[in-house]
Amino acid sequence: MNKPAVNDTNDEPCIQTVAEPLQQYLQEKASPKPGRNNATSEVPSPNVRAFRPTNRQPLAMLTILDDGSREDGETIRIRDSRFTIGREKGDVKIPFDGDISSQHVELRCQKQKGRFRWYLIDRKSTNGTFVRAFRASLSRETELIIGSRRYLFQLPVLGSEATETEALQTNAYRAPTRTLFEQFVPRLTETGVAEQHARSFSIGGREMNLGGDPRCDITIQDDPFISPKHARMYQDESDRWMIEDLKSLNGVWIRVNKFAIDKQTEFQLGQQRFRFQPNTNH
Length: 282
Known about the structure:
The protein is mainly beta and 282 residues long. 6% of the residues lie in helices and 36% in strands. It is built from two helices and 20 strands. It has a 15-stranded mixed beta sheet that branches. A five-stranded mixed beta sheet has the order 5-4-6-7-18, with no helix packed on it. The chain starts with 14 loop residues before the first strand and ends in a 5-residue tail after the last strand.
């Protein structure tokens, strides 16, 4: 039997955004290369940096993405320390999306230890705020968007979690609703549908693939937004459950309450997707 999973916490998941694996490569490509400057160009000094503001917050860029695109859309330059998005109220309003709350989310810039940092903060919205992740930890009751549906990652409730009073009580017999195996493994359960129609998948072993391909451990063939090999769920060396995007077209999205944005990040409210760039220095 597997060891108990260690993700039993209500803390925000540890999320590595899609942009992060590219950062080092992009920085290397952007660095000046010796011998690349022509005769009329100034040879840059390794000790001199391009100008950027030091006494005010950096300019941030928000793109309201066009449907079906990760690049094109309406771009807004954010020059305030707080910027809100909602269906009825906010600096940006999306009135035609009924899944977005009246005041849904706030982008807030705060100065901490001499540096400015942006945060994405959900304002107790009904349907939540989701960040596109390359890799993320999964804690108890982590909510995800995979394809066109939402799922809840659920860890098993172990017997040791019962209170002492409950442990001493004698309960009348009731037939188990799950097999013995299912009671001790995590599950991925669809949300937002009637309980009798919700799909639920047992996650056995230390690694399982999810996708539309019937060879995947978890197969979802009737969702056209799921790639053949969409994501994998696995336990790392610390027995922590993780999910990783397998270069899917539509990504893996994790629900957050407050998320620090240090790099380019995509997020979703209702049916609308956004791309946020903390500053204009790519």
